[in-house]
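Before relying on records like the one below, remember that each one covers exactly one chain. Contacts with other chains, cofactors or solvent are not represented anywhere in the record.
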Amino acid sequence: MKAVIQRVTKASVTVGEEQISSIGRGLCVLLGISSEDTQKDVDYMVRKILNLRLFEDENGRAWSRSVMDTELEVLCVSQFTLQHILKGNKPDFHSAMPAEISQSFYNNILEQMRTTYKPECVKDGQFGAYMQVHIQNDGPVTIHLESPNGPTDAKQLSKLEKQQQRKEKTRSKGPAEPGREKAAQRSKADPNASSGAEGDVSSEREP
């Protein structure tokens, strides 16, 4: 899962001519859900978003308070384009979770965030709609966050798949393969020597 988190003085979401949600000072969070995401990704993202220290304390010391510490608002917007892979200059979105299952997944994120924090302080856009997101970045402060449970880069995924295939080939040969080769060499030198492949134990041979 990927997120772009912006500290804002205000943010709002409009669909058509209607403003459906808005917040004052707080965080605007754009969330991109991967097809590989699980509940572990949800737990990580919710914890990080609510606990990132992006605000000053009462003495003006920067990077000291989280959105929960300061009791500010969070505006979440589903943003599948964060799960892009560029093919030349064209973005490909096949790694994004399909809309028919990602909506309930996204709603789960919102519910967990509201349960952890205050329900009235967590707002969202309109899932699947063509939205106008108005963000007044404060600072500017922008944080890119990615859950650590799995790679989303196509080259990295391909590399890991090849490594896994090599491991599987190695396991299929079995750990005794080098021993068989040595046994074969011994048998050429001594026809009466046991290879060990059939379960013979060399110590049981008569001298």
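Residues 154-173 form the longest helix (20 residues).
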